[in-house]
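Sorry to interrupt, but I need a hand with the structure work. I would like you to pick a protein and set down its sequence and fold. Please put the record directly below this note.
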Amino acid sequence: MHQWITHAPEETMHFSERLAVFLKPGDVLTLSGDLGAGKTVFTKGLAKGLGIQEMVNSPTFTIVKEYQSGRLPLYHMDVYRISDEEDIGLEDYFDQDGVTVIEWAENIPSWLPDDRLSITIERVNERERTITCKASGSRSKHINEEISNDERASD
């Protein structure tokens, strides 16, 4: 488990933009944090790092938004309104050719793949956030180590 502190939304975006460099098809990232913690801000930075040109916003009411214009597709999910008992086929995205980001993943624990990078964003104050990355599985451990060793992620 690794942890970073960002001091502004732009720093959160910069961190996730750097993280995107290390992502490959099939990678799954889960995002947890209170409302307003910065999950969508994090995803915007990730999209930028993937070279995605479309405007990225929260898929709260559509559940899934797909972005195809980058070096890898991005599947952005918001499962705030979904429960673990519902099966609407979101796990079909996990084995595709892109990166899957799931906001509120704690609502669907039985659907999640074993190998994923779990990211928690906690509000320290109005602008500061603590970002904690916890890996489960060999691929996510590799990503976690790469971003931990990347000096530019903290710039």
Summary: DSSP finds three helices and seven strands in the chain. Strands lie at 2-6, 28-32, 64-67, 74-78, 99-103, 116-123, 129-136. The domain at 17-129+136-147 is CATH 3.40.50.300 (Rossmann fold). The longest strand covers residues 116-123.
